[in-house]
Design a protein that fits this description.
Length: about 425
């Protein structure tokens, strides 16, 4: 069968949605399907066009696995402002939909695109051409923007965006959501029939570098030594995108408090994003000790950098945990490290932490509570932390790897061909 995949991110971008789209494409090709992907020119997570790329209206080529790739022009969002992100979203939606409109008609479309605008335009083209469309929902919009205080709940724009999301869900052939919480929102608040929704979490490759560094013997760099961290110091690590919704500034406030009572507890922030420079400036201006940044965080360094952590920390802001599930949770769990998350008690994130026994969750945006919990965890026996890490890794291997999730997506895609 012929499949078109529309994805808002794609390799060489390292973010999870880029990897899941790429892995799905490769798996479809391995099964003998014809695949075309429609994607933007790479810019995430830094918000800068990657070296070696030059934006043009369309750039189509066949990649090394035999996939037809069409890169489309779109604006780039160097700052995480709502105007910048909306413009990126709309521009990619326009050009990706034009590419889709003039492409040979596929049997099915799989969309993993930006919400509302880009996804809406893709869905419109699918409707016009009579093509079944499966939409992967990574965040609930506009709810997520309201929770981030980027839009007010009763704003006219918010109401319009929600109506668009309802229309998209109604027009779709099927929705893939990443949590039971998302499924409930679409069933109860968007009136989508349960038969049109499948719960398939995001995933990482089982043989990826997100493995426990303790099991590796080819460590090239001692990152503790590099940053002046003693072997008996306690390292808390945040690894991933440093953006508006990440809550990294709250972590920095917490470690400013921790520094007043502990000289053996460190915060390592690994990754990049729109708020990296601001976070670095906060640390420097306030002379906060034992907070270090590892940037850029190269893929080949993943295991070695993770290896120095005693505890992974996953903050969320406000009610964000109710409308999103951070993809970094999977890599944290596969790393075999204990996890401290900040999430509301009834959120999917808190539920996964509890079900997997991978660590602890506390209320969001409370630097004092984070400081207290980190100090308490740092005093636990090492065996307790190792047990949490192993439990989380086991849970992720059973639920969130390519071997578990990709066959479910492919079965769903193939079902629309067989139903013709």
């Amino acid at each position: 069968m012929n499949v078109i995949v529309v994805s808002a991110v794609f390799p060489p971008e390292p973010v999870v949605s880029s990897q899941t789209s790429s892995q799905l494409v490769n798996a479809l090709i391995q099964k003998g399907h014809q695949v075309q992907v429609i994607v933007p020119f790479p810019s995430r997570p830094s918000g800068q066009l990657y070296d070696g790329y030059h934006r043009k209206t369309f750039d189509t080529f066949i990649d090394e696995v035999g996939c037809k790739v069409t890169r489309c022009w779109s604006t780039i969002s160097p700052k995480s402002s709502i105007a910048s992100r909306f413009l990126e979203n709309i521009s990619f939606g326009i050009f990706s939909s034009l590419a889709l409109l003039f492409a040979a008609k596929p049997d099915v479309i799989y969309s993993n695109s930006w919400p509302i605008f880009a996804t809406g335009l893709t869905t419109l083209v699918a409707k016009i051409k009579g093509i079944p469309i499966i939409i992967s929902v990574q965040d609930i919009y506009p709810d997520s923007l309201v929770i981030q205080s980027r839009l007010s709940e009763n704003n006219l724009i918010t109401k319009i965006l929600k109506k668009i999301d309802v229309a998209i869900a109604s027009a779709s052939s099927h929705l893939i959501v990443i949590s039971s919480q998302f499924s409930d929102i679409y069933k109860n608040d968007r009136n989508v029939p349960a038969s049109k929704i499948s719960i398939i979490p995001n995933w990482l490759k089982k043989d990826s570098s997100f493995i426990s560094g303790d099991n590796r013997k080819d460590v090239k760099v001692d990152y503790r030594a590099k940053y002046g961290i003693h072997q008996d110091d306690f390292v808390v690590m945040y690894g991933g995108n440093i953006g508006v919704a990440a809550g990294v500034k709250t972590l920095i406030k917490a470690f400013q408090l921790i520094a007043e009572s502990s000289d053996k507890t460190w915060l390592l922030i690994a990754g990049g994003g729109s708020q990296l420079e601001e976070c670095q400036r906060i640390v420097q201006d306030n002379n906060i000790p034992k907070v270090v940044f590892h940037h850029p965080w190269l893929k080949e360094e993943t295991a070695e950098v993770l290896n120095i952590a005693n505890l992974m920390i996953l903050p969320t802001m406000g009610q964000q945990s109710l409308v999103s599930v951070p993809s970094k949770l999977i890599s944290y769990m596969l790393s075999g490290k204990a996890i401290l998350s900040t999430a509301l008690p009834n959120s999917e994130l808190a539920n996964v932490v509890e079900q997997s026994s991978c660590g602890w969750h506390i209320e969001p945006e409370n630097p004092n509570l984070i400081a207290e919990e980190v100090i308490k965890i740092s005093k636990l026996p090492t065996s307790n932390l190792l047990a949490c890490g192993e439990a989380g890794r086991r849970y992720a291997l059973e639920n969130s790897t390519d071997e578990v999730c990709i066959p479910k997506v492919i079965d769903l895609i193939e079902s629309f061909h067989s139903n013709k």
